[in-house]
Amino acid sequence: MALTPSTIPALLARHGLAPSRALGQNFLADPNTAARIARLAEIEPGDRVLEIGPGVGSLTVALLAAGAKVTALELDRHVIPALEETVGAGAVRVVVGDALRVDLDEVLGIGGPDASPVKMVSNLPYNVATPIVMRVLESAPVITSMLVMVQREVGERMAAGPGSKIYGAVSVKIAYFGRAELVGFVPPSVFIPAPKVESALVRIRRAPVPPVAVPSASRLFELVRAGFGQRRKMLRGALKAELGARVESVLAAADIDGRARAETLGLDQWAAIARADADQNE
Questions:
Q1: Helix pair angle (267-281, 217-229), 10° resolution
Q2: Residue 120, SS3 per DSSP
Q3: How far is 245 from 241, CA to CA, in rounded Å?
Q4: 282 pLDDT exceeds 70?
């Protein structure tokens, strides 16, 4: 069943539902946009797909039409009957749970008979989009690509490069795991209710191995967070709390000017700092 501005209110009414502001529910109400997302996600028949936050199934319909085998992870159990009405009972595997807390290996059937890679395609709630993307990158390597719809500002930050005003710790961390690119924008008018901001479509392709070598990824991310936590400061000041008296020698060993600022450093340079830090801690 295609979901449109006229069919979604009736569907919600039949199930006694209303979009939850607390859960960030903005239901996609445009089949053309849903089909576009499935196309940009490069869904092929038989692909295993994780959809986080399917809601009433607007995007799910397009994923099924593309031939995907969908696992839908939904926090709000109350919308499940509406989702099943939209796609048909049994058409998708539905798991009720919080994407920030569930065992993703269990959700994705890791260790089961189907060990094929998974693509994640999701319209993510604005307020938890970044934590969900980061958790998937860190703990679900079986997910080899993502196509996520997020708030435009968040999407631009995910895909930003060094030197940009919006480049930050999230940009560096995503670059460690793979490559993010903006592939489109979505206007508020295609949602019920309409959000106040434009959405962005971000595609993330996971790298087979991280593009830089560091002794500890978690330590790399600690240094990055510290650097961007005081982004108005020069690096020698921003990293002082993390590196202490060693800050100047670590930066010198990494061939980084202590007067530089966090947003000017690419992933390679952050990795050099992490390696120099580890060397001096031995």
A1: 110
A2: strand
A3: 9
A4: no
